[in-house]
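In response to the reviewer comment on reproducibility (Comment 2.3), we provide here a single inverse folding case reported in full, input and output, so that an independent group could reproduce the run without further information from us. The structure tokens appear first.
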């Protein structure tokens, strides 16, 4: 239930187990994860992997850092893992229009849904190409599984390279994403093979750690974030069942509650341009230093990840009208969801808060301007996780908590304690 008592928002990511609530302390988190363990299943696959194990949660004698040291690359398995007979591995060239369309179709029909199967992520082709082609990407990390006879694409997993800082340790990692198995091939233990294969290909590039997120609880989250949703088009959100009219609320009161100004309020607010890359890089690098886990971004990364890309990522800077200095910036990415089985609406247009840095403008005002431009661009909803400093504006800007969690994980890197979401400075797409 939203705090303003006006509406109740569903979430798009659906964990099977909710283990934390928003205000849990790290200790409570640890206890709740342990309880989850005793209550629930073993993890036959994840128990074999170099990840923090539930049983070790309270064991503070275990050191932080790498769990298994790297081996010589010559000792990394040289052939792909075995797949069941009818299937074969392929490397997906996302630069090929045809392959990109196949991946798009697989994900559009089989990727993440909410708990009630009302919405499914609908990453666009342009988004997928952007997400998978950062500086230094490896084509071999974009992995598909096809049916040998028909060549139909039935599973997918990807990695991209990233430098992630954990405390003072900057680590070369893979960010693993877009794990998807066709609905007809579920529960056949294909996912562990996909994960082992991407791990093998990552090892072949002499990279030994990874970062990933999931809506499900696995051993062991470094933190668990909650999604919050800010209605921009409340009528549509209610029509499609994303939100409900709050108690004692009418539609007209709801529309009034979420109404935003027609234009942004901060002087010097403008779209980010190529010439802003050095200033934005300085801002984001300094800002991210305060988090325990955050990406280590250079100018090339900022140009790729933060410079606006039509229909994919939007970014705005505040240029001081007096000094022309870039003092703040905000950004969001575009990730629509398909609305499943609705008679009139097929797509929910959602903006997701990305990296935001305020040094002169109050963060609340900057993020209100982000809402205003998102509304101008016809987004239906603005989503944000409770990581970084987002908690400081969510309630005040009329976001309501979603009912899903997003758990963050590191592979082959242990942290002694579960982090608070506000200690995390990493947004994965
Ligand atoms: C996620 C998905 C690929 C898992 O495949 P599946 O057929 O359901 O499961 P499988 O039988 O192949 O494998 C089960 C193992 O994978 C693990 N697993 C399931 N989802 C996972 C995830 N998102 N990330 C990592 N591991 C996952 C399970 O925990 C289990 O391992 P365990 O026994 O150690 O616990 C599949 O359900 C899917 O495509 N879902 C829709 C898209 C999606 O949710 N993708 C993940 C986004 S984070």
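Designed residues, in position order:
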């Amino acid at each position: 239930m939203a705090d303003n008592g006006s509406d109740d928002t569903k979430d798009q990511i659906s964990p099977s187990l909710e283990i934390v609530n928003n205000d849990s302390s790290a200790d409570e988190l640890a206890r709740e994860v342990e309880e989850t363990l005793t209550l629930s299943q073993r993890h036959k696959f994840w128990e074999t992997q170099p990840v923090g194990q539930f049983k070790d949660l309270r064991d503070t004698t275990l050191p932080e850092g790498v769990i298994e040291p790297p081996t010589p690359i010559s000792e990394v398995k040289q052939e792909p893992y075995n797949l069941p007979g009818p299937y074969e591995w392929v490397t997906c060239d996302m630069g090929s229009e045809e392959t990109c369309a196949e991946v798009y179709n697989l994900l559009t029909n089989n990727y993440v849904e909410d708990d009630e199967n009302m919405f499914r992520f609908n990453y666009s082709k342009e988004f997928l190409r952007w997400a998978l082609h950062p500086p230094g990407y490896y084509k071999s990390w974009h992995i598909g599984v096809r049916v040998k006879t028909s060549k139909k694409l039935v599973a997918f997993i990807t990695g991209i390279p990233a430098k992630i800082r954990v405390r003072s340790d900057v680590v070369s990692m893979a960010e693993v994403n877009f794990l998807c198995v066709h609905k007809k091939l579920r529960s056949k233990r294909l996912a562990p093979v996909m994960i082992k294969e991407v791990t093998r290909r990552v090892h072949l590039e002499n990279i030994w750690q990874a970062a990933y997120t999931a809506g499900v609880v696995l051993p062991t989250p470094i933190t668990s974030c909650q999604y919050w949703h800010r209605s921009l088009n409340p009528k549509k959100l209610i029509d499609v069942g994303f939100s409900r009219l709050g108690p004692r609320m009418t539609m007209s009161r709801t529309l009034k509650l979420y109404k935003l100004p027609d234009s942004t309020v901060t002087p010097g607010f403008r779209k980010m341009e190529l010439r802003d890359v050095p200033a934005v890089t300085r801002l984001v690098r300094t800002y991210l230093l305060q988090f325990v886990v955050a990406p280590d971004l250079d100018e090339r990364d900022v140009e790729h990840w933060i410079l606006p890309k039509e229909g994919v990522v939007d970014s705005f800077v505040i240029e001081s009208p007096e000094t022309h200095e870039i003092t703040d910036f905000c950004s969001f990415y575009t990730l629509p969801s398909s609305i499943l089985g609705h008679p009139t609406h097929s797509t929910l247009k959602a903006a997701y808060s990305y990296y935001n840095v305020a040094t002169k403008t109050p963060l609340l005002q900057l993020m209100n301007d982000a809402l205003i431009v998102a509304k101008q661009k016809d987004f239906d909803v603005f989503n944000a996780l409770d990581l970084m400093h987002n908690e400081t504006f969510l309630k005040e800007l009329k976001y309501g908590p979603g009912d899903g969690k997003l758990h963050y994980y590191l592979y082959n890197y242990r942290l002694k304690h579960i982090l608070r979401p506000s200690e995390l400075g990493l947004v994965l797409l």
